[in-house]
What does this fold into?
Amino acid sequence: MKICIIGGGLTGLTAAYHLGRDHEVDLYEKRRHLGGCVSSYEIGDYHIEEFYHHCFSGDTRLFSLMESLHIADRLEWLKGTSGYYADGTVYPLNSPGEILKYPLLSLMDKARLAFLTIRSRKTDTAPLDDVTARDYITRELGDRVYRSFFEPLLSSKFGDRKDEISAAWLISRIAIRSHRGLSGEQLGYLDGGFFRLIDTLSDQVGKDCVMRLQDPATTLSREAQGWRVNGLRYDAVISTIPPHLLPGGGVPGIPPIPYQGAACLLLSLEQEVTSGIYWLNMKDKAPYGAVITHTNFVPLERYGEHLVYLASYFQGNVPARIDQVMLDDFCTRFRVPPDTIRWHRMAVDPWAGPLYTTGFRNRILPYQEKGLYLAGMFSRPNYPERSMNGAVAAGEEVAALIARDKEA
Ligand SMILES: Cc1cc2nc3c(=O)[nH]c(=O)nc-3n(C[C@H](O)[C@H](O)[C@H](O)COP(=O)(O)OP(=O)(O)OC[C@H]3O[C@@H](n4cnc5c(N)ncnc54)[C@H](O)[C@@H]3O)c2cc1C
It folds into this structure.
């Protein structure tokens, strides 16, 4: 079979990896390199992700892919500490002692929060899909816990649309993250960065498939026995990009999936400013929702400079001058002299992930729709959160479906 894959992110690469040996596969990627959201910068002698990345202990599909690429021995488990920045103060929130000391929630609030976290693992989230996270948390834990703990988190992740996010999404996320130990969470990282995953995978895929870089799929039309993409004929097409971006206006009949964009400013600093914390959520209003100090997670010695992401999500167009606005705020708030910032790089992805609004579960797409194969952030393995693991699973599952359809 002649197969076209649109999108050279992790989903498209994984599908190509599984199909390339038995089929003629063309992989179309609009950028000049592969990796999509897991792309990296090359800085001197190291690589660092454009957008912060780590993986979780349950990411079994990702680990199997790493095994098959012989890079699993490079996976390491490191402490991913977290905290809150509130009222101008950094509060670490890892050990029970630190949580007890956190002054913005009462003891009773903390006990109820802990109970909700434990209960989340057994909660049937299906009936919560049509309930907003705000209504659910306010009902279960009260307005103060919502306002001082959950609202800033939702706001930093979903901006103005935070009030539309479903409770099913929030509770599923809490359940996934509830297995942390007494001193913080162990998170996975590849020695050499996730660049190593994309690089090794791309090398393998390149042996069997035609890589069409800087070649966006711009035309797509149906033919008697297949499809035509950019003038070439294919028996099957897998699209891994947001469905409404497909040439010709998307797949008829599929309601649009709401997406949001991400803007991530990566800074090189001479000093560390988040009290040793990896992931600092901003409760105070700021033009970024989290300050993520990569070198408080992965050893500083590997880079020789402190690497910090300022992370923000947006809807619609990226706000004007967002990089400068973030930089100015960060320097003032964390008392960093601007001339001590060695360099900074901005990454923007307008299609960084779905918005998990109420009713989202019903919008999860099947792998085949109107004769097209669809796999990506909108597929089942990426609920409740799109991830590298979900991308690998979606890529594998759509490849298996094509193989099955061919045999039928
Ligand atoms: C800010 C951020 C942080 C993240 N952090 C984590 C994390 O810590 N852990 C984790 O597991 N996951 C994380 N993720 C999620 C993870 O990176 C993604 O879920 C996964 O990489 C998605 O892969 P994909 O191939 O489905 O989509 P994408 O990576 O979006 O790939 C789609 C590709 O299609 C290309 N494309 C678009 N239009 C066309 C066209 N017309 N023709 C050809 N090519 C086209 C794009 O350039 C892109 O390369 C994060 C994502 C973001 C944005």
